[in-house]
Design a protein that fits this description.
The complex is a heterodimer of chains A (113) and B (113). Helix content of chain A is 0%, strand content 61%. With 113 residues, chain A is mostly beta strands. The radius of gyration of chain A is 13 Å and the shape is globular. With 113 residues, chain B is mainly β. The chains are: A mainly beta (113), B mainly beta (113). At the A-B interface, strand 5, strand 9 and strand 10 of A face strand 5, strand 9 and strand 10 of B.
């Protein structure tokens, strides 16, 4: 059973389009995250939710909007895609208080043309 | 601002030897430090977490040390195998939140048979 899953694995789209990436975890964790990994392989946190509430919102363009329908799901919606949005996006989860290790999904490679 | 440095050059070693990877950080005293493994096209996988009051932690062939005076962590893989070839990421918690991680850019390890 996959602990943290993301769909789709690959996403190729044109500038200006709107797209969504879905994430689900079956670990029973309270906290979920979205990360962006650029071409230089730096992983940077974008958002975090704890029990469906937004707790981390980094300096990310407001074209990016996370949504957490329940604590097992955290989706990422991106409006008006730009070339610079091309990257690999990872979803992750952690167990919460005093449990800081994070479990990552397989990633979604977004290519904007 | 907090900064993490990992050797950007790949580490190339012979099978059976001990691999030692370095993570240096500045401008902060983290409560804990983590090591992850990332294979191409996959999400990072948690390996070990070491807290500020711990000097060393072991898990099977892995050993992590944490020197808060030097602001450095060393990650060792003993009796290395070609299957250990991957990129290893160091991460530490951010001063504004224990749930936020700052990742280094990683060091690629190549183990020759």
């Amino acid at each position: 059973d996959t602990a943290v899953s993301q769909t789709p694995k690959y996403l190729v789209t044109q500038m200006g389009n709107d797209k969504s990436i879905k994430c689900e975890q079956n670990l029973g964790h309270d906290t979920m995250y979205w990360y962006k990994q650029d071409s230089k392989k730096f992983l940077k946190i974008m958002f975090s939710y704890n029990n469906k509430e937004l707790i981390i919102n980094e300096t990310v363009p407001n074209r990016f909007s996370p949504k957490s329908p329940d604590k097992a799901h955290l989706n990422l919606h991106i409006n008006s895609l730009e070339l610079g949005d091309s990257a690999v996006y990872f979803c992750a989860s952690s167990g919460g208080w005093d449990s800081y290790e994070q479990y990552f999904g397989p990633g979604t490679r977004l290519t904007v043309t | 601002s907090q900064k993490i440095e990992q050797n950007s050059e790949a580490l190339n070693i012979q099978e059976g030897k001990t691999a030692t990877l370095t993570c240096n950080y500045t401008n902060y005293s983290p409560a804990y430090l983590q090591w992850y493994r990332q294979d191409p096209g996959r999400g990072p996988v948690f390996l070990l977490l070491i807290r500020e009051n711990e000097k060393e932690k072991r898990k099977e062939r892995l050993k992590v040390t944490f020197d808060t005076t030097l602001k450095q962590s060393l990650f060792h893989i003993t009796a290395s195998q070609p299957a250990d070839s991957a990129t290893y990421l160091c991460a530490l918690d951010r001063m504004d939140s224990s749930y936020k991680l700052i990742f280094g850019s990683g060091t690629r390890l190549l183990v020759r048979p």
